[in-house]
Fold:
Amino acid sequence: MKSSCKIFVVMSVLMGFALCSSFAQKGKSAKSVDSTIVSQGSLPVEVTKSFKKRFASATDVVWRLIDGNFVVECVVRSVPTEATFQTDGIWLSTTEELDPNSLPSPAMKSVNSYFPKCTLNSYKRKTDNNKEITFIVGVYESQNIKKKLETIVWLDKTGAVIQTIEPEEPAETVAAASSDEESTSSKKTAKQESKTKKEKDGNMDGNPIKISENELPYDLLRWISLRYSDYNYKEVLYMEDPDFEDEGNLYRIKMQRSGVGQSAHTTIWFTRDGEFLKVDDSHRTVDELQKVAEEAMAAERARIDKDDDKTTPKGRANVKPKEDAPLLIAVDEEEVPPEYIAAFKWKYPKVKERTWNEDAEGNFRAFYTDQAGKNEVFFEKTDSVRWLETKIPIADLAKVPFSMRSAVEKDYPKQVVINRAWNVKSAVEKPYTIIELYNRRDYSTETLEFWQTGKLKRKIVSEQAKEQEKVEVNTKEVKTSKSKDKATAKEEETPQVVEVLNAPEEYMAALKLKYPRVKDVTWGKDEFGDWVAFYTDQAGKNEVFFEKTDSVKWLETKTPIADLNKVPFSIRSAVERDYPKQVSIKRAWNVKSAVVKPYIIVELYNKKDKSTTTLEFWQTGKPK
Structure:
């Protein structure tokens, strides 16, 4: 009996230790559990369906819930892949981890230019739901190779650098560095002596690259123009500098005072992003330079005000131009639907402070301020919310492309000046530039949109300018123009062809040769005396055009598109993008031709003024 009691006690103690050990293990593992991980069983049905449809062969699947979106990590055809889905199942982006050696040549060239001594470590390709491709490249700069600290560079598909994320040293490394402060100090002293010697010898570290001032960031150019307006650029280098070894490559700029026999006595250092680091100026301190900059900005404002006063009619000095601003209501972020906030964070994860407005239709737009100024972010809401476009102000109007400024000078009188300008990045079309013009004489504004090639995209006349035109136009002329518009519209709706029963034999022979099975043909003559044949099939009324030189030959056939939804999406979206809401597609035709590739004719109808416009597109969707 006693022995059985001892056994029971021993077993109880062992079980107690086992339970304690088990709870201790659970406690440890609980700390290491990633709180963002979610099980596949808890995913919304729409997310699961969308994932399986897009990544049917995925393995090693792990799901996370981040900023209101579901992010999956998996392996697709041996490629580590990460994808983001909205809660309603809409796919947002896919990021693939690829071989660094497969980085496209434009991006490779850009990386080698900005980081000449770097070692390529990683390469990811991100594809957004708007088909925008971004390259995310990880490099070890020369000063970080031993520490294995990776600099992340984001580039667009052309190789242009979007942003650079500097590496952060681990806390242990920082602590170790601080504990060895004396050693570090002596090393810095030695390095400084070495640098001084090299400068005396005329040498520099980092294989500096000579560049043009036109390649410098805007903020950097603005900083210099305000403080050194009477100086010229003598030398611009993109290089490493031992004094700023943590910055990696930076800009070192030598300035020379204008005039004969002047020496370069000013050197300025900036980070690769254009942030000011240091100035070596024997004549002025940084505080004195700041005063010069403030005076220059005050002079700019005074000059603008003076120019405005010169063109202001007497008695109207206090009248301000009316702005065609949309009705927007400021709202607190707490009142903004969470899907808008999630869409913003997905697009701009690093932006912390933002404000929101709501328009009359209940759509929200966000504003955030950076070095360029106040940026405006637009969203589109259908089944979900997605980023549509961002307007980025051009603070220095001298940076508006020359082709656009010269177009304004050429097409507008002197009293019309560029008032404001924005670069626009869009999810649905190529980047473009918006320019707001201001007429100093009548206080009207007009907005022009240009593609970045300098070609005009769209002209938007303000309501104020339209009202001014109405006042200047005589009532009789208005009535006349309206009647002419109606007559023109009727003419365009019915082709200038007089239908007859029979055509010359050679035309009928040419039609029978081209369309031997067609019956019930009617003929007509156009205004040039050429014959056109008409026949009806399931699509509708077809038009067959002929050309007569020495003989008659088929030229082209217009076949109506009965269902306008069958007009290619690229053409329909181009119309929606480039024309106001009151303009819609009224009719469309497919055209087969003997001399050019097949194309499509689209007839637009303006519900407001009853006018029509005809557009021609190649079947690829490009304008003909």
Q: What stands out?
A: The chain has 13 helices and 31 strands.
